Model the fold of this input.
Amino acid sequence: MTTISPLIAGNWKMNGLTHSLDELSELARLLTTGEAPRALVVVCPPATLLAAVAAQGASSGIIAGGQDCHAQASGAHTGDISAGMLADAGAQYVIVGHSERRSDHGESSDTVRAKAEAAIGAGLKPIICVGETEAQRDAGDAEAIVATQLAASIPDAASLHEVIVAYEPVWAIGTGRTPTLDEIRDMHNAIRSRLVSRFGDDKGASIRILYGGSLKPQNAREILNVENVNGGLVGGASLLAKDFYTIISAV
Ligand code: PGA
Done:
């Protein structure tokens, strides 16, 4: 079996001002004075703080990531940020297809795939998010919905480049509710089989599948231990260095 090194990514969403870099310093302190983390640590701040996070995080192994990118490399797209700009600011990863982008900005899986392609083209590793709504899960459609999103959102270029999948049930994001460990295991196993059937045994087994949605210090250890959970995408709990560090240490 391929062993996958775990990755924990913090998604600050639309939170963070210059003073939030103090929290990053505290995280750096915990990471460098405590036991060495067993996971790669990525922090995805708002774009305004990206360059500062990349510069400040470097000495403690904290890697910077963007929260979204445009599918085009440049052009007349006021307010948007290209993957190349994120890379230029020091990012190595970028989240694409987060459910908040899919719902707030009407992004389809085709758009998400185009963004993931742009990210790969700029040398970034896309963290491609998928996940069902509560109604879809209640209707018994969760696996089918996620399979459809995966098929359309992951570009073929993933066969040659590194991509990460994040399974984030929409109803678990920011709600304090999580699926049961069995539900997480079943979904992550289902995602793994899709990746293996599309990209082959070796590549399909090597793609990280993160869990996201109300990952907290209290539940991190049990969730991160589930089969085929190769790390986490953490929203709210990544804003406090102490909580985020506890999650990282749970790996
Ligand atoms: P949450 O968010 O940890 O606050 O639930 C997760 C995410 O949206 O990535």
Q: What stands out?
A: The mean pLDDT is 97. The pocket of 2-phosphoglycolic acid is lined by residues 11, 168, 173-174, 212-215, 233-237 (CB under 6 Å). The radius of gyration is 17 Å.
